[in-house]
Amino acid sequence: MKKSLDFLEQMSNDNYSQLTYLKFNKNVDESVKQIQAQITVLNWANEMVYYYMQKEKHFLHEFIEEIQVQKNQVSVLKNSVYKSALIKKLNDLERKINERINSSK
What we know:
Layout: H1 2-24, H2 32-75, H3 81-103
Helix pairs in contact: 1-2, 2-3
């Protein structure tokens, strides 16, 4: 997923560069309509990048919720080494995901 996020960030940066060029360069060898069309697509693409980056953040929160569901299911098991290991591993996963969420803020 990191590679996808890196790609989306790079796409956004490239789009902003192109937008700046198209909006402020008077020597563009294209019609006003062509420039407007390109600007429309670049703005749309940036909105999509933002949407999918937010979706990725929400995905991690959903994962945390699923871990909580698993913890609740495990809690009904008899106390045992197996139950302890399940809870420990679920806590480890939750910690890693929370670290990822916090690092992206």
